[in-house]
Amino acid sequence: MSLRVLRELWLFFRRDFAIARTYRAPFILEVVEALFGAATFYYVARFVDSPGLSRALPQGGSYFAFALVGFAFFDYLNVALDTFDHSLEEARDTGTLEPLLVTQTSLSAILAGSAIYPFAATTVRVAVYLGWGAALFGFPLGAANWSAVIAVLVASMLAFSGLGIFSASYLLLFKRGNPAKWLVLGVSSVVSGMLFPVNILPGWLQFLAWLSPVTYALDAMREALLAGTRFGQLLRPLGALLLFAAVLLPVSILAFGWALRRTKTTGTLTHR
Amino acid sequence: MTEPAIAVESLEKLFPAAHSGWRAFLQPFAAPTAVALAGVSLAVSEGEALALVGANGAGKSTLLRILATLLLPTRGHARVAGYDSARNSREVLRLLGYHAGSDLGFYARLTGRENLRFFGQLNHLAVMEIDRRIERLAGPLGLADALDRQARLLSTGTVQRLSLARALLHGPRVLLLDEPTRSLDALAAADFRRYLRREVVQRCATTLLFASHTLAEVEQLADRVAILDAGTLVALDTPTALRTKAGAATLEEALFHLTGRRYAQMEASGEES
User: N or C: at which end does chain B have fewer Cβ atoms within 10 angstroms?
Assistant: First the structure.
């Protein structure tokens, strides 16, 4: 990646940060909301936890830690599927889409740049969740392997972004949200091990689970965060996530480029 | 022979008819049938100012948007300094400044200066250079008080001046302006026209292609005028020559005469068939 592209990505981050800074209340509300979220999982876990349940969890430990990681990191999929759509809709509604497209910055940089701040904000939100969990409810952060956590995060964001760009291509063409986005979210929330281990699912759903990048992401994140698994032992889920990214990202960018050309042909680029 | 700054050759643009109900879902794949440009050809030399005039729906904005790479032509070519706007969009965008005539297009929660810096940097200008240019443009465009206020607090006219500043900021070789003074008050519009003529076109030899409904503005700015009617180029000449050709005292009269005569011919040919 060239220095110029990095600079362009930074510009988008700075733009979104500057805009977010003008709204202070939502940040404070999110910190409070994270406290309620962490507390909910803590009390649900107290209600359902048992030595048998802990033994059934892939990484061992408490159900609270398992569920909190699942819930908090599932948010990355939400953001990936939402952020490209949202940026596009906002650019269309504020009339900034055309001015952006007539700059010398490439379409891929505009797309990637628009996703950086939402992903960074999600990372802060997840950190606040885990922070509340650790400070008040005994969430175990001591064993975490942070370099592996970062590697899983980056690979997950890349893999999920492909799905998000597909969704934005649909929005660009059809002007309304993509029904496939809700299907991906719905199916992933059931099969990807967000709140319960994948191995309790029937065989055909387990098969579906391993076709979703979210399953690999949550599995690897729990390994790195809760079990402190070393980088070398995470090569399989990391490799799977990078494979998803290697296929989904270029294909989705091509799809977005095609959708953009189509709207330039039909003259519907700025239509709602 | 040097390439003209803008060359439009047999340019045609058709849009699909608008659908409603369930057929709207197929809109992206509908066949184009509504004619916006019907084989327009024209060339603009470097440093020349050419005005596009004509009624609403004549094809002025469509032509500008094709040159700005925001629309793809159905047939024909639109070139900027020899680069095809459909095939070499990156090269074209390096040379272009574009103002869409809209009073939208800025981030409401950022100040005027922050907005200009953001777009300037996307055109690969350094912040210091952008700041220098902003200061240079602020006077003639009357932006001094607007630069440090959030865009949401600016009047429609000021947002439009900000948009003109954005189009000029990176010193483009070719400037495309769609109704550049539409929301400006009379004094601001006069100031801007003077600046555009003296500094941008005459001093920097920037090529200017603009669409306008204000014929006094056209007379003041344009070396030549292209009259479009229903997607067809009806006439292309200097304002004086157009007046002479139409036997008219004013450009307005000439415009009416040139397009009106064409309507009469169309009506006559319709009656014959």
Answer: N
Whole-model pTM over 0.90: no
**Cβ burial B93-105 (10 Å sphere, 16+ → b, else e):** bbbbbbbbbbbbb
pLDDT of amino acid A161: 92
> Is A237 in contact with A147 (CB distance < 8 Å)?
no
**Which residue of chain B is at minimal alpha-carbon distance from A4?**
B124
Partners of A256 on chain B (C-beta within 8 Å) are none
Query: Given 3-state DSSP classes, what are the helix, strand and coil percentages for chain A, each rounded to the nearest 5?
Result: 80, 0, 20
What are A4-34's pLDDT values in tens digits? 889 999 999 999 999 998 887 887 888 888 8
Cα gap B41→A34, rounded to integer Å: 62
Best mutation target, B89, B93, B118, B163, to test chain A (most A CBs within 10 A): B118
- A32 residue type, one letter: V
Q: What angle do CA B91, B96, B99 make, to 5 degrees?
A: 145
Q: Which residue of B has its CA nearest to A90?
A: B107
Sheet with strand B6-16: strands edge to edge: B32-44, B6-16, B75-80, B83-84
User: A52 versus B229: which is more confidently predicted?
Assistant: B229
Which residues on chain B place their C-beta less than 8 Å from a C-beta of chain A? 15-16, 25, 27-28, 30, 32, 36, 62, 68-72, 74, 90, 93-94, 96, 98, 100, 102, 104-110, 114, 118-119, 121-124, 150, 163, 166
pLDDT digits 0-9 by tens, A118-174? 999 999 999 998 999 999 998 888 889 999 999 999 999 999 999 999 988 998 888
Rounded Cα gap, residues A87 and A74, in angstroms:
20
Q: Are B165 and B133 in contact (CB under 8 A)?
A: no
